[in-house]
Structures are given as structure tokens and as C-alpha cells.
Amino acid sequence: MSIDRSVKIAPSILSADFADFGRECEAIEAEGADWVHVDVMDGHFVPNITFGPQLCKAIRPHVKTVMDVHLMIAPVDPYIEAFAEAGADILTAHVEAGPHIHRTLQAIRGAGVMAGVALNPGTPAGAIAPLLDMVDLVLVMTVNPGFGGQKFIESQVAKVAEVRAMIGDRPIHIQVDGGVTPETAPLAVNAGADVMVAGSAVFKGGSVANPAPYGQNMNAIRAALA
Ligand code: DX5
Ligand code: ZN
User: Fold this and answer.
1) Is residue 3 a part of any domain in this protein?
2) Number of the ligand 1 atom closest to the C-alpha atom of 180
3) 177 assigned to active site
4) Any domain includes 21
5) The ligand 1 atom nearest the CA atom of 142
6) How many CB atoms lie under 10 A from the CB of residue 61?
7) Is the whole model's pTM more than 0.90, yes or no?
8) pLDDT tens digits for the chain (226 residues)?
9) Starting from the edge strand earliest in sequence, which strands make up the sheet with 36-41, in order?
10) Where in the sequence is the domain holding 103, given as residue range(s)?
């Protein structure tokens, strides 16, 4: 099985207007988003709290592309069913979130959802070597998770290249998340990443009332890759 390795932009709604998520999802899709990235934080695995399965369920009718849910929570397993029922297309769990990531990934696929595994900046690529036959996506964090608007950590580019080599011809997406801009996206893509998560770089300057900057910002990232 092969997958589409062309570059995709997945705006993170962490940078959207929290009072208007439904219309924000529609606006970024109308402006050309390929996927919608949903950052779930629990105030325990990461030092910030965002939202949970109910929000995912509420925005699902407003997302026509791919609802890509990044779980920055620990534990993960008790919530998989709820996120699956909320309509997630992809559920990504962190390899650092607990001792049983293998079981977590089995449970995600068992719930009928594509499975992703995420690596914090301090975690080596080798941590996911035993998991590659059970994931659809590897997320290489290019900031320490918890907040938008942080600086891209360049040392992670080598990790992207390592993951790309490990994957071989398996049908697995490589996603980068954190500090992705027109300046940093080419580094990640050249190393083998195909899904660019971007929050501030997509949402800056725009709004539901004035969505054109969302499209311009995404085009600036694409143009930098051309
Ligand atoms: C960080 C989140 C990211 C974040 C990216 O914990 O996982 O998705 O929102 O934001 P920017 O693009 O602003 O770095
Ligand atoms: Zn994320």
C-alpha cells in the first residue's frame, strides 16, 4: 500500500479563536488546509490544558478533511474510545505518555482509527523502532509540547531524517509540529516530513471575518518549498 507523500498543511486550532472553533475550521479549510490538527492537553503530561473529546465531537461536522488529534495526555487508554466516537480520523499518542505505548497503539487501531506515535524533542528516534508496523503516522515534535508560538528546535531535523530512513517503504506519514514557518518547513520536508502542523504561522493576521490571511500564510509555506 502506498500513501500520498506530497506536503500537507495541518493548521493547529490551538491558534484559533477559542470562542468560534466551528467557523475557524471551516475558514482554514476554505483557505486550503489539508488536515485540521487538534491539540489535546491535560495539564499533566504537558503544562497546559485545552479541550477533550466533546470539543472534537462538536467540531467534527465542521471538518471535511482529516481530523488529526494530537493527544498530549497521560494516561491515554481510558480516553481512546471517546475520541474515536468523537470522530477522530487519526489519534496520535506520545511514546513518553506511559509504559504501554504498544498497547495504546493497538487500542487506537482497534477502535477503527489511524494511529500516530509522537516523539518529544528529548526522545531518540529509536524509541519507536519496535512500533513501526502498527502506526500510520510518526510525529516528530519540533518544540517541547504545551504551547504555540515557540521556536523550532533545529536538532530535530536530523531525527526526522532518521525516522524517514527507519520507515523505508512502509505507508507512514511523518509529521512535524512546533515552530513551523516558511523558514523552517523546508528543513523538515528535505529531511523527509510530509505533514506540516502550524499554528501561529497559519492563523497570524487573519480571523473568521477576514480569513484571506490564512490562505496567504499557507501559500507562503508552500511557496518556500517550491
Ligand atoms: C504544541 C502543539 C502544536 C502547536 C504548534 O504543543 O502540539 O501543535 O500548537 O504551534 P506553533 O505552530 O505556533 O508552534
Ligand atoms: Zn500538535
Assistant:
1) no
2) 12
3) yes
4) yes
5) 14
6) 11
7) yes
8) 689 999 999 999 999 999 999 999 999 999 999 999 999 999 999 999 999 999 999 999 999 999 999 999 999 999 999 999 999 999 999 999 999 999 999 999 999 999 999 999 999 999 999 999 999 999 999 999 999 999 999 999 999 999 999 999 999 999 999 999 999 999 999 999 999 999 999 999 999 999 999 999 999 999 999 8
9) 8-11, 195-198, 173-177, 137-141, 114-119, 90-94, 67-72, 36-41
10) 8-225
